Amino acid sequence: MTTKIRRTVAATGMAAAALLSVGVAAQPAAAGTCAIQPYGLIGDYWRALGGADSWFGCATVDEYTPPNMTGRKQRFEHGQIAWSPKQGERMIVAAFQKNNQAVFRWGPTDPFHYEYFQVSGELSNGGTVLGAPLPGGTAGRYAVNVAKGLKITFWVHGCDQKFPVRKVCRQGWTIPVSVTMT
Asked: Can the keyword Signal be found in this entry's annotation (predicted)?
């Protein structure tokens, strides 16, 4: 009996991880309440996190291509989501507010796999946040306390070799995403 339960939990966990890693669209969660409907990988990610009921809320602008960048980006009531294909075919970066923290999530970087990630953040008051090397792999998350009223913009790059002496970050920095703390 115990073995069957463990296998079921493991299989369920792997299936859920597989669904999230490929960005399978969840059923829209109150998506009909938003005037602008996100689509594609950004829309899939937004719906998987709860759509209009997620930490992001509704989209405030249509998806667009940032100037001089490859990828797509969309602003929401409480953050931004971007597709950053130079760092992975289905790479999503997202910034949102969760309570008093600015949360930054990224992944999957497939087909790339990194020894570590480095996050950089820039505050609207001129301050900077440079995260210590974070565990590698194909995805990650970073959260930091940010004062009310400040905007923080995040980037991440995946790197190999020893930090910081022989740092090799071949795919470069992602498209930046921001959140303004309320």
From this structure: yes
Per the CB < 8 A criterion, the answer to whether 68 and 90 are in contact is: no
- Asked whether the whole model's pTM tops 0.85, one would answer no
User: Can you tell me which residue has the tokens 């090799």?
Assistant: 168
CA distance 102 to 79: 9
Give the phi and the psi of residue 3 in degrees, each rounded to 5.
-60, -45
Q: Tens of pLDDT along 27-83?
A: 444 456 899 999 999 999 999 999 999 999 999 999 999 998 999 999 999 999 999
Number of neighbouring beta carbons within 10 Å of residue 74 = 26
- Summarize pLDDT for 149-164 with one digit per residue, the tens: 999 999 999 999 866 6
Class of CATH domain 26-180:
mainly beta
Domain coordinates in residue numbering, the chain = 26-180
Residue type, 128: T
Question: Taking a C-beta distance cutoff of 8 angstroms, is the pair 41, 20 a contact?
Answer: no
Q: Are 172 and 86 in contact (CB under 8 A)?
A: yes
Distance CA 29, CA 22 (A): 19
Report the C-alpha gap between 142 and 125 in whole angstroms: 20
